[in-house]
């Protein structure tokens, strides 16, 4: 699986191993284009893409969430694998903590790794449904 922290300047990316155990940040994708993500999906033989959905702490969706949903839809039209969205609340704060603890990857990609970890945990808890 590939997780994406979509932004208007760059996209953070992270991938997990085939067992869904280890999530690894990848280099950011700049500029943030769906075709670059599609190429990465093909190169890495990704079976599912998860796009982070920036939801406010209140649970409401704002402009950034609408942009992320639109990007996920664009990817869905380009790819032959499922594209999901998943709540990414607090992943940027978690990425900041990881960087303070010594993580060397880009903040956006660390956030994508935390998103993927949360998504995989949700799948495990819910019998394969996020």
Q: Quaternary status of these chains?
A: single chain
User: What is the count of helical runs?
Assistant: 4
CATH class: Alpha Beta
CATH topology: Nucleotidyltransferase, domain 5
Strand-residue fraction? 15-25%
One letter per element, helices H and strands E, the order comes to EEEHEHEHH
Quick one: biggest sheet? 5 strands, mixed
Structural class: alpha/beta
The CATH H-level superfamily is YqgF/RNase H-like domain
CATH architecture: 2-Layer Sandwich
The spatial strand order of the largest sheet comes to: 3-2-1-4-5
How many domains in all? 1
* Overall geometry: globular
Say how many strands there are. 5
The residue ranges in which pLDDT falls below 50 over 5 or more consecutive positions are none
What's the overall average pLDDT, rounded? 89
Whole-number radius of gyration?
Answer: 13 Å
